[in-house]
Amino acid sequence: MPRPPEFLMPSRRHGCPNPRAGAAVIVITGASSGIGRSTANLFARYHWRVGLIARGQAGLQATFDDVSRHGAMAAMEQADVADLDALETAAARIEAVLGPIDAWINCAGNGTYGRFLDTPAEQFQRVTEVTYMGTVNGTRVALRRFIPRDRGSIVNVCSAVAFHGMPLLSAYSGAKHAVRGFGQSIRAELAQDGSHVHLTSVFPPAVNTPFFDHAISHMGQLGRPLAPVYQPEVVAEAIRLALINGRAEMPVTSTAILFSLGVRLVPGLVARAIRKLGYSGQLTGEAALQERHAPTLFAASEHPSPVRGAFDAQARSSSVHVRVLGLLARLRERGRREPKTGRQASPVRPADEAPVQEPALD
Predict the structure, then answer these.
(1) Torsion angle, CA of 5/7/9/11, rounded to 10 degrees?
(2) Do the domain assignments include residue 344?
(3) Of the residues 113, 132, 172, 230, which is catalytic?
């Protein structure tokens, strides 16, 4: 595969690729549902080549079909992110089809609901292996490619629970705290080396994905997202903007921003609120919803999973914060022109093509 066009090279500020004369290549783990599937759809609309990694064949095929319907080139590989060798093999096969990877998005994660001592050790370990070590493995596979090329961007999908752990989610909270600290460490190493490779951690709030149907519950009822809840398309757009702005850490939505500020400024008040809401706010209380329960902690679903979960009625499809970030990105796009052609030099949307319609977030 030939070297990508110079239009795909990173800026001096960070390693974000700029698809201009050709399509950049993005790889997404956890691509079979939720945020991962939504992100694949979004980047397909921007005509990136999309590499898909997940455990389940049915879910992968559904996302592959989504991407293909948008007219984008795709490759899919079954792999468990907890298996480093399998992930390395998947990345190599994707590059053989799509070309060198420009961006890598670590979306894979899982969880269980229950008090710590009610959660079997093997379940706790599995959540840690997928949610934390899966991110570590994905980052390792990406950096093995990006560092020698001195270009590339990684986005680790963290969570607002990385700012303060939640009861009943001890394994997931611990894993997301670890993901945040891991990202900080890697960024320091890259900066010390003067590398143009970039890593961003994004911190979404509660998101309406199938996570809650797939999580094992030891509480006699299904878990639910703690309000306010957002649709996964909001997070997908934030991931795209994270690749553009190159921030080290990026809370997603004003909810996550206020939560992170509250943890720093009034930690006692936040802790009391979490103790009060952490149980009632995270459980459905409706036994009938048990019919939805399809745990996927140890095995992938045999059926495709949707982008969204069961909480459409409560989920917000828009975020003022994300919209403002998008506006700022477009303003920067207009301000950056090539000296002779005057064409835009930002990856906000593919140039030399009709503008792609922005995601419908309202």
Answers:
(1) 170
(2) no
(3) 172
Give yes or no: 172 in active site: yes
Angle at 5 between CA 12 and CA 154, to 5 degrees: 50
- Taking the C-alpha atoms of residue 221 and residue 31, their distance in angstroms, rounded to an integer, is 27
Q: Is residue 361 part of a domain?
A: no
Contact status, residue 36 vs residue 14, Cβ threshold 8 Å: no
Structure confidence at residue 294 (pLDDT) = 78
For residue 6, pLDDT beyond 60: no
Q: What integer best gives the mean pLDDT of the chain?
A: 86
Q: How far apart are CA 228 and CA 256, in angstroms?
A: 10
The total domain count for the chain is 1
The pLDDT of residue 330 is 84
Q: Which token pair is 323?
A: 């919209």
CA 283 vs CA 33, 114, 288: distances in Å: 22, 10, 13
How far apart are alpha carbons 82 and 30 in whole angstroms?
12
Which CATH number is 151's domain given? 3.40.50.720
Burial of 341 (0-12, 13-18, 19+ CB in 10 A): exposed
Measured in degrees and rounded to the nearest 5, phi and psi for residue 16 equal -75, 125
Q: Is the pLDDT of residue 140 over 90?
A: yes
Residue 195: domain span? 6-335
Residue identified by tokens 């990345």 is: 91
Gap between the Cα atoms of 278 and 141, Å rounded: 36
Asked whether residue 347 is assigned to any structural domain, the reply reads: no
Whether 200 maps to a domain, the answer reads yes
